[in-house]
Q: What sequence folds into this?
DNA sequence: GCGCTAGTCAACAATCAATGTTTATTAGCA
DNA sequence: TGCTAATAAACATTGATTGTTGACTAGCGC
């Protein structure tokens, strides 16, 4: 997505009203690279607008998805993760703390061509799973050698 | 996984009893490349053993996962999909009918190297999304040109 | 500024996959 | 043969997400 102001303008252009709740949700996602769950977005939003309901967060997230402002991903956890980064990219998921990072592997372009079976491939999604630096440190405890 | 007989042997070697229910579940998965849900496995199993409960199917699938005989995947649908193919491979998912095919893109090997961020990457998962041949035909109705 | 109407909240309930529980019965295997 | 695991059945629960309804609020076009 673009800045929260841009998203707000596009919401209005699509006949949606610009409410403080929606704007707070846009703002919570603007530049957010933590791939938050709906709950996490809600937690962030109520820091500035304490009365916003989780229900409204879910609704607004779905509206944003419909308008293509954000994307939803499912990395195997219980909850969906939301991502304001709509550029082509892929993900690094930490198996122990669920942190998600964006990655932009060039070689993905070579993958498309190989997909056969008569499919019309519209999207390629790459998920790298492993252990993030913080969890690697925690795992080795006080002895982080490599 | 190997043949149902091999899996059965390994179950017994691990102190599990070999029940008709379990064997029927092994058999339903043996050589099954449809990536079935638990419900689908159950539907297949009760063709030969009508009294098997869905509960038992879930339990046995989890046991098989623990023993590394099968893998579970989540492609974004509601239910998990189970895969007896434990060799390194990736997936083609049809967005309209949920069919899943196995693919073996060579270029995946080049992807590992690019993952930075200090992660210790243990697995790479590639999902190609698109439309399967059958759905492409259905979409174009009577006029399948290309 | 007014008023229409969308948006929101609150408090429900429902859904759906998956798992926990308990009890009684069955059957694998040493 | 007998111990014990496995199963079935009939519950209940969890947890994310969505539907509903009714009352209140506020955005925005005029």
A:
């Amino acid at each position: 997505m673009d800045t929260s102001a841009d998203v707000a303008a596009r919401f209005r252009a699509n006949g949606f009203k610009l409410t403080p709740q929606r704007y707070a949700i846009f703002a919570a996602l603007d530049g957010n690279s933590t791939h938050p769950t709906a709950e996490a977005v809600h937690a962030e939003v109520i820091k500035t607008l304490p009365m916003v309901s989780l229900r409204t967060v879910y609704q607004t997230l779905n509206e944003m998805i419909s308008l293509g402002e954000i994307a939803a991903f499912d990395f195997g956890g219980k909850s969906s993760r939301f991502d304001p980064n709509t550029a082509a990219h892929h993900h690094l998921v930490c198996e122990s703390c669920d942190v998600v990072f964006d990655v932009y592997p060039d070689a993905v372009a070579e993958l498309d061509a190989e997909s056969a079976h008569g499919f019309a491939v519209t999207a390629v999604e790459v998920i790298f799973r492993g252990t993030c630096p913080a969890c690697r440190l925690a795992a080795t405890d006080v002895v982080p050698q490599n």
Q: What stands out?
A: Helices of chain A lie at 4-13, 20-29, 38-45, 54-66, 108-114, 133-140.
